[in-house]
Batch of 3 targets.
Target 1
Amino acid sequence: MKIPYPDIVLAMARYDAGDPKRIQHALKVFGFASVIGEREGFPPEMLAALRTAAILHDIGIHNCEKKYGSAAGKYQEKEGPPVARALLAPFGLPEKLTERVCFLIAHHHTYAGIDGPDYQALIEADLLVNLYEDGASPEQTLAAGRKYFRTPTGRALLSAAGGARSGPPFRAQKIAGPVWRDS
């Protein structure tokens, strides 16, 4: 099945209308997630779940702010999946894909118990954007790289992105951790 990413992006943008920061954040995460997934050789179904979740990963933020007065990750994980499911319904995606997308959204701020390459890639893509948007120091970026990044592509992107400001904070060397490839 061909996934209508441009239409899903437009649905997300309409939902987040008037909030360019959130729209641009989602598109940056989508870009990084796509690069990681493609470079790591994810199978098509996994890549589809990753890309779709990346577009919608923060879709529950407005509900969180209204309901809890906070956009904290634990609230996003709770409020995001129902909104994502409603936004995806008109596209007639396979239920298995929608379920995985909602699972990824419901866990994108949970860094323990990562159960697959798509989950790992979403964590890395979101962190790449958050570290930059939050103005993380080279030391914070290096610590995040060592603690959370496992894919060679994610590590290379972190090194390149961090290097643009103050020299490479993280070198993509041989570091223990899974390499996500189906062979």
Target 2
Amino acid sequence: MIWSGIEIKKDNLISVINNSIQNFGMIKNCEEYVSQCKCKCCKFDNNYIVLYPGEYEETRLNKNHIKIIDDNYYNGKKAICLRPCKEDEFKPLDCRGYPYFPKIDESDNLIILKGSKCPLKDEELANHKKRFFEIWDFFIKNKTIFEWLKKIELIGYEEINL
């Protein structure tokens, strides 16, 4: 597979994700809402974040703010954040894409879920949503990720119309 001029091999997919799309997940409008929502997306009651297969192991960034709660969730992991991540720390793909998440249904169709904790309106998320689709349109072509997205379950998300 080729993406943005980079040849992607099965064994280095997560490394490419972690190193080439670092700005993905920086939502400009988030800064305006932090005082109101107090980073709801980084607070966990009965929910969790999911870490893609190999994602946690591949990063060289500080991940002390991540607590693993299931070390083998269909070859990925379940985790919670102990605090919001800092700019120079590991930010999981689940968090980078939030409030959106790709899911593969039982008929192998891509559906998009939206997290219910995010106070931003669709028009405020337009650029982020566009980037999300560009990235996931490519990465779900990876068989490991595709199969993993079929198995996992998320809490606090609703399916949205494409």
Target 3
Amino acid sequence: MGFLRRGGRDLTPTPPSYGSAVPRPFSELLSNAPSGELETLARHARVPDAARQRILELDTRTLQAQQYLADRGITGRDAFEVVQIREDFGPSAVHAYLGLPPTTADTAVLQDGRTGAQLLDEELDLLLDAVRDLLARAGEVGQSQLRANHRFLQQKFGGRDRGLEL
């Protein structure tokens, strides 16, 4: 029952169907995931569009990395760094940008000819690269385990005659 009614008819528009023209909201893509600070910061009105996309990508990738590492029982430095990127380094970069005066954040040159928005983009790219590197290292562990298991099975069962055995 909709809120817009006229003459007994429901005039509430139906929600759009999700597909290529209407993507699912980010919050629905990871419905079991808690909303993090990065997702909240990405919604801030002063965040440039290019940075907003990188922030959301960083939020998604760090969450996926945390889940991947946890599923494989990988703890230690790599797992800690992913948490730091998601909960500390990423939000700190965005907060630093938001601390700039709104009138000059995208125009004033701050370092090496770059504006605050350009520095934020570079920092977010560095963090995204770090997450990719962490996942690559974790993937190497999985690849090593798969190769070792393959060698074991080859040695154990590979030399047998595939013909009929009685």
